[in-house]
Design brief:
Elements lengths: L2 H15 L2 E8 L4 E13 L3 E8 L2 E8 H5 L3 E3 L8
Antiparallel strand pairs: 1-2, 1-5, 2-3, 3-4
Length: about 80
């Protein structure tokens, strides 16, 4: 089982049990920077997942690839225990 598959399964488990997460994102293209913000996982798909973040009273939806989690561009605090 490869690491991307493990990450996808952990995110899918979060989505089904408790989709409210805390996320930090630093993706260079397209430029997305989010620092320890509350978000909700709104969908889990084959190659990516979607989140909706709530910051300063408005919501923004982002699409994130599992590879971004693998290389550290995306950190989901709730995943730390489930990936080890």
């Amino acid at each position: 089982m490869n690491q991307l598959f493990c990450i996808k399964n952990a995110i899918e488990r979060l989505y089904k049990t408790n989709p409210d997460i805390h996320i930090s994102v630093d993706i260079p293209r397209p430029r997305i920077t989010v620092e320890k913000t509350r978000a909700v996982i709104t969908g889990v798909y084959r190659n990516f997942f979607q989140i909706e973040e709530y910051d300063r009273g408005c919501s923004t939806r982002h699409t994130i690839q599992y590879g971004d989690v693998l290389i550290g561009h995306v950190v989901i605090e709730e995943l730390h225990g489930s990936l080890k």
